[in-house]
Amino acid sequence: MEGFAAAQVFGSVILVGVCILFTKLCDAMWVKPRRIRSTLWRQGIRGPKPSFLYGNIQEMKNIQSVLVNDQASQPAVSHNTWVKSIFPYLHLWAQKYGSIYMYSTGNKQHLYIGQPELLKELNLHKSLDLGKPTYLSKSMESMLGDGIIRANGPYWAYQRKLIAPEFFLHKAKHMLGLMEESVIAMIRTWLSQVEINGGVADITVDKDLKRVSADIISKACFGNSYSQGKQIFAKLEVLQGVMSKPSILFGLANFRFLPTESNRKMWTLQKEIETLILDVVKARIEEVQSSSKSRKDLLETLLESATNSEDHLHTRDADRFIVDNCKNIYFAGHETTALTASWSLMLLALYPEWQERIRAEIFDICGDDRDCFQDLDKLRQLKSLTMVIQETLRLYGPAIITSREAFADLRVGDLTVPKGTIIWISVMALHRDPENWGPDADEFKPERFAGGVAEACKYPQSYIPFGFGSRLCVGQTFAMLELKILLRSILSNFSFSLSPEYRHSPVYKMLLAPQHGIRLLARRLQRENVMTQT
After folding, report:
1. What is the pTM of this model?
2. Where exactly are the transmembrane stretches of this chain (predicted)?
3. Domain for residue 14, yes or no?
4. Which residue from 29, 69, 175, 379 puts its CA 20 to 30 A from 103's CA?
5. What is the rounded end-to-end Cα distance, in angstroms, of the chain?
6. Into how many domains does the chain fold?
């Protein structure tokens, strides 16, 4: 009898467990999604009809496959025809349902927002109840861990408070020298290639600019050079390629725990990258202990925070905190700047009149003064160069889409956004909206920024190359200074045109990247027109 009673109790426990599990599954797969969709529906928001369990996944795949088959007929160089090939379902649904609509991927409910007025409201929302989607943090753990890019809540706020000051202007301006030092080495290499090839060299500029940008961020933040950290950058680039899938970005069927070939590759790369970063950290600790130098970079700031018992990090692994933020800075700190510089040179090759305009401005402001390249005040005077960078960020900004998750019911303007809703904003669509930018929105016209962003468009808050709201990129000032140093130094020595081998094919690789590289023909300027730094 005792055995029978025990069996009954055990059976009851199992039954209760099954009931609890079933209730949780129903809540996650049916109740919560239905609540979100019902709330949005009552406010007049529509979208494609989802199927049970899969949502709109199959429709997204169908739209993507149709558009891929149509890409062969696209013109060689165009600033708008390629846009709809990246997340084409978002563009198609916007045409059908308007600038605000909802859709589903499995049990995840997404709200697409393309209205500048609502974006203004989101910009003003500083609460920690609006953050990065939690499922993305899990999916991109191999690449970014729980660093500043993907963290949420108080832990994100703590990281921002710690890291942001390292990129403020008063610190960034002291890095102008090392920025110049890094770009000079590349310029010397290019000059040698031009000379060897009889005055014109076919250069894949994005590869070299990645190395230069990586060298700058390594020296500025970690106290070492690109050559010391090149394995980290190489492995991060491979990992970036593995993870550049819409299935990860939009939370489609994402079996990240299964030992698939792709997942095994990610796990291996993650482990190798973290080991290499810890080697850099170990070397820095030894250097600090044996040196009396007064300079303190970002890595030392992270080390101090991780070992400070007064900080709230005692609940987290110190090595994990350092590694995660190093991965974030290594990735975001060099990739975005290098891509922007590369797209800028491509556009300047297409529009040589802007090359001449920038060059004339450089010579007018700097003359024969080589120290001008490290003068922050003169750097600010390069208005034409600034306009070109801003227009490049509008048409070919590295971040082409951004997202937020509502961790509580939120009020955004007249719209109620239910808890659990994932908000998506297409930066490409906002930056090309003719109602905001005018009928020439798809054209390269840097002069639109002559009066600054405030006068460039109807809704300045919809210009978001560095993000928006409280999650604005902490390295924005540093990036703009680096871009000006890079482009000014390059354009003072070379003129560019498109290589016959250049194939214009922007693609999504976590950022907007040139699928086949950016190949340009470089010519050295005549000596009398050159302010060479070599």
Report:
1. 0.89
2. 6-26
3. no
4. 69
5. 94
6. 1
